Automatic annotation (TrEMBL):
Residues 438-675 form the SGNH domain. It comes from the Bacteria. The chain crosses the membrane at residues 30-53, 74-97, 146-162, 169-188, 229-249, 255-275, 287-306, 359-379. Keywords: Membrane, Transmembrane, Transmembrane helix. GO terms for cellular component: membrane. Pfam families: Acyl_transf_3 (PF01757), SGNH (PF19040). Residues 6-337 form the Acyltransferase domain. GO terms for molecular function: acyltransferase activity, transferring groups other than amino-acyl groups. One of its GO terms (biological process) is lipopolysaccharide biosynthetic process. This is Peptidoglycan/LPS O-acetylase OafA/YrhL. It comes from Simplicispira metamorpha.
Length: 685
C-alpha cells in the first residue's frame, strides 16, 4: 500500500476547512468541530500505512523508527507555533481571569498534555472562555501524541508478519471496542472528560488502524482492492454524505460518542472505498484537485496557526466584522504556508534525520521539546517587560492586590494566611512587625463571592491602619444573601456556605463586623461577552425574579439572625455600578474597535439606580427585622450624586477592572468610606 495517497490530502483539506469555519463562526457550520474526528481516523490510517510494510524487527527498533518519524513530522512546526504564540500572548494579553490557564496549557502542549490541563481546568471546549485560550486547539495533538505511545506497543506485532498480524488486528479491534464503551459511559457522567481524554478518543484513531489492517489482510488473501468499482464509488459518495451530515449536525452534548460516529464512519468509508479507485472517478478528481491537495498538504500547519490567530484577534481588534474575519483567514493561510514551506518541508526532506540513528533523532526531538518549553517559561516570566498592554504597565492601578506594607512604618506588613474548612477555605489578613494601634477597631469577617475577595486592597489597608484582623470567606460565583437563590443553591455553593457559617458561629464575638459582599445584580457583560439587555431586565424584574427575592429575604433573615444574636454588627454591601464593557479589555488603542468595547466606559446613573432599588428595598426590610444590620453603599462614592452617568474611569485611572469588579485604584478610592463603615454604623438608605 502506497504511503502517499493524494485523496487523503483532499480529506485533510475538508477536515481543516470545516474546523476553520466552525471556529470563525459556529453558526455557519454547526458540527464543524467534527473535522477533528476526520483527522483522528486519517492519522490512525496513515501512521499504519507508513510503517505497515516495515521489515520484521524487535519492539525497540520498531518504536525507535516510529517515534523518530513522528517527531520529525510533528515537533518542528508545533514548537515554532507554540513559541511564537507564547510570545504574542505575552505581548498582547494582560493577565486576568479570562486569560488564566493560558500559560499552563501552552507549556503542557510541548509535552502533549494540554488535553489533561484543559480537562482539569473546568472550562469545557464549548464554553466561551475556551475561545480566549490560544492553545485550546492543541488538545487534539495531545490525544494523538498519547495514542502514539500505545500504537507501537501493539502494532509492532504486525511487522513480525504471519499469524502475528492477525493477532495485532484483533488487539486493536478489542481496544477500539473497549474505548468505544468507555467513551459512551464517560459521556454520561463527565462530558468534558469524554471530549478531551485519549482513552475516550482512542477508538477513532484505532478505527483508522483497523481499516488499514483489514484492507492489508484482504489484499494478502487475494481480494483485489479495485474489485466492484461501481458499488465502491457509490459507497464512497454515501460516505462523503455521512461526513457532511456529521459536519452539519453534530452536537456538543453527544461527544465523543455517539456524536462522532457519522464523521468517523464516513471517513472510514472514504478511505476504504477510494483506495485503488480510478483517478478519473469524479470524487477522486474532486479530492485530488490541485487547490484542495495544497490545502491538505498545509493542513497540519493551518490547524496549528489558525486558532492562535483567531484568539489573539478576539483579544485585540475583535473577530466580529467581515474585515477582521477575512484578515484572520488570510493571515492563517499565510502563516501556515510559511510554516509548511520553511519549517515542515525542509526538515522532512533533510537527509540528516533519515541517516542518523533513530535514537539520536528521538533524543534530539526530546531536547527540542525541553528547550522550547524552557524558552516559553522564560517568555512567560518576562511578560511584564514584554507586554505592550496599558493594564500591565500600570498594574498598580488595575490589579486589586493592595499594598502589603505600610509606607509610613518600615517593617510593618500584612500577611494573608489560608486556613482549610470542612469544604473550602478562608483567608486571614493579619499585621506583623507593626507598632500597637490605640483604640481597638473591630475585627472584620467578610463573606460572599469574588466581590468579597475583590476588596483585598481594602482589607489589607484596614489591617495596616487599625491592627484588627480580617477574615474572608469567599467562593467565586457563590454569593451570600445574593438574593438570587438559583446561584446560592448550587451544590458547591451551598456546601461552602454551610462550612463558612459553621466556622463563623465559632468565631464571631460582640463588636465584630460581618460584611456581606456579593454581586446582587445581573451582569450586563462579562469578560468575554455582552448579554442581551432584555434578558438582563427580566433577570431583575420578572415576576419570577421578584418571587425569588421575597423568598431570599426570608432566608436571609433566618441565616443572619443567629449571627446577629452573637453580638456582631452585620453590614450589607449596596450594589456597585455595573458596565456594559470590561475596562481592562478596552484600555488599549488597538482594541477600541472590538465589539465588546463598543458600549463605552460609562452607564446611565438613572438606569443603575432603577436596578439597585429592589435590592435596597430588601436590605431595608431585613434591617427593620434585625437591628444589628446596616448598609454600606459604595455606589455613592463611585458614582457621586449629580452625575448623569457612572464612569469606569476617573481622571484617566480605572475604578473598575472588569464590568463589575473594582480595580486597585477603585479600592483606594473607596478606602475612607470603607473605614468609616467598618468602625461606625451606617444608616439604611
Amino acid at each position: 500500500m502506497h504511503s502517499y495517497l493524494p485523496y487523503v490530502d483532499g480529506l485533510r483539506a475538508l477536515a481543516v476547512l470545516a474546523v476553520l469555519v466552525y471556529h470563525l463562526e459556529p453558526t455557519w457550520l454547526a458540527g464543524g468541530f467534527a473535522g477533528v474526528d476526520i483527522f483522528f481516523v486519517i492519522s490512525g490510517f496513515i501512521v499504519s500505512v507508513s510503517v505497515g510494510a516495515r521489515p520484521a524487527s524487535g519492539l525497540l527498533r520498531f518504536a525507535g523508527f516510529f517515534y523518530a518519524r513522528r517527531m520529525v513530522r510533528i515537533l518542528p512546526a508545533l514548537v515554532v507555533c507554540l513559541l511564537v504564540t507564547t510570545l504574542a500572548t505575552a505581548v498582547l494579553v494582560p493577565p486576568a481571569w479570562l486569560s488564566d490557564g493560558i500559560a499552563r496549557t501552552g507549556l503542557a502542549a510541548f509535552f502533549g498534555l494540554s488535553n489533561w490541563v484543559l480537562e482539569q481546568s473546568g472550562r469545557d471546549y464549548f464554553s466561551p472562555a475556551a475561545e480566549f485560550n490560544p492553545f485550546t486547539h492543541t488538545w487534539s495533538l495531545g490525544v494523538e501524541e498519547q495514542f502514539y505511545f500505545v500504537f507501537p506497543l501493539v502494532f509492532f506485532l504486525w511487522s513480525l508478519g504471519g499469524t502475528r498480524r492477525l493477532r495485532s488486528a484483533w488487539m486493536f479491534a478489542f481496544l477500539l471496542l473497549a474505548s468505544l464503551g468507555y467513551s459512551a459511559w464517560l459521556g454520561s457522567v463527565d462530558r468534558s472528560g469524554a471530549f478531551y481524554q485519549m482513552a475516550s478518543r482512542f477508538w477513532q484513531l484505532a478505527a483508522g488502524v483497523v481499516l488499514y489492517q483489514w484492507m492489508a489482510l484482504r489484499s494478502q488473501s487475494g481480494v483485489a482492492p479495485s474489485a466492484h468499482a461501481v458499488p465502491k464509488a457509490l459507497a464512497a459518495w454515501a460516505s462523503l454524505g455521512l461526513v457532511v451530515y456529521g459536519l452539519l449536525t453534530s452536537q456538543p452534548q453527544n461527544y465523543a460518542f455517539p456524536g462522532a460516529l457519522p464523521a468517523v464512519l464516513g471517513t472510514l468509508g472514504l478511505l476504504g472505498c477510494l483506495y485503488g479507485a480510478s483517478p478519473s472517478q469524479p470524487l477522486v478528481r474532486l479530492l485530488t484537485w490541485r487547490p484542495i491537495v495544497w490545502v491538505g498538504r498545509i493542513s497540519y500547519s493551518l490547524y496549528l496557526w489558525h486558532w492562535p490567530v483567531y484568539v489573539l484577534l478576539r483579544w485585540t481588534v475583535g473577530l466580529d466584522g467581515p474585515e477582521t474575519r477575512t484578515a484572520a483567514v488570510v493571515l492563517s493561510f499565510v502563516l501556515a504556508t510559511l510554516s509548511w514551506r520553511f519549517v515542515e518541508t525542509p526538515l522532512r526532506q533533510w537527509h540528516l534525520p533519515r541517516q542518523a540513528p533513530r535514537r539520536a533523532v528521538v533524543a534530539a526531538g526530546l531536547v527540542c521539546v525541553l528547550l522550547g518549553a524552557g524558552l516559553a517559561s522564560l517568555i512567560e516570566q518576562q511578560q511584564p517587560r514584554l507586554s505592550i498592554s496599558t493594564v500591565v504597565h500600570n498594574a498598580s492601578d488595575w490589579y486589586p492586590h493592595g499594598a502589603d506594607t505600610d509606607a509610613l512604618a518600615p517593617g510593618c506588613t500584612v500577611q494573608a494566611r489560608q486556613q482549610a474548612l470542612e469544604y473550602g477555605y478562608f483567608v486571614v489578613y493579619e499585621r506583623f512587625g507593626c507598632a500597637a494601634v490605640k483604640g481597638g477597631a473591630p475585627r472584620v469577617f467578610a463573606i460572599g463571592d469574588s466581590h468579597a475577595m475583590g476588596y483585598a486592597p481594602l482589607f489589607k489597608a484596614y489591617v495596616l491602619r487599625t491592627g484588627a484582623p480580617v477574615f474572608v470567606y469567599a467562593n467565586g460565583g457563590c454569593p451570600f444573601v445574593g438574593l438570587r437563590p438559583h446561584l446560592e443553591s448550587a451544590p458547591h455553593c451551598s456546601q461552602s456556605q454551610t462550612a463558612a457559617l459553621a466556622d463563623l458561629r465559632t468565631r464571631l464575638a460582640p463588636g465584630d463586623v460581618l460584611l456581606l459582599a456579593s454581586l446582587r445584580l445581573p451582569r450586563f457583560s462579562d469578560q468575554w461577552v455582552r448579554f442581551d439587555e432584555q434578558q438582563v431586565y427580566e433577570a431583575m424584574f420578572s415576576a419570577q425574579a421578584m418571587r425569588e427575592r421575597i423568598g431570599a429575604q426570608e432566608a436571609a433573615v433566618a441565616a443572619l439572625a443567629p449571627l446577629a444574636a452573637r453580638g456582631a454588627r452585620i453590614v450589607l454591601e449596596g450594589p456597585k455600578p455595573l458596565f456594559r464593557a470590561p475596562p481592562y479589555r478596552c484600555a488599549e488603542t488597538y482594541n477600541q474597535r472590538n465589539a465588546i468595547c463598543q458600549p463605552g466606559m460609562s452607564m446611565e446613573r438613572e438606569l443603575l439606580e432603577r436596578y439597585r432599588m429592589p435590592v435596597l428595598e430588601v436590605f431595608k426590610n431585613i434591617a427593620s427585622r434585625l437591628p444589628q444590620v446596616s448598609v454600606w453603599d459604595p455606589f455613592a462614592v463611585l458614582c457621586p450624586v449629580g452625575q448623569d452617568r457612572c464612569e469606569a474611569f476617573v481622571k484617566g485611572r480605572p475604578l473598575f477592572f472588569d464590568a463589575d469588579h473594582l480595580s486597585n485604584h477603585g479600592n483606594a478610592y473607596l478606602l475612607p468610606s470603607f473605614l468609616q463603615a467598618m468602625t461606625t454604623p451606617r444608616s439604611v438608605p
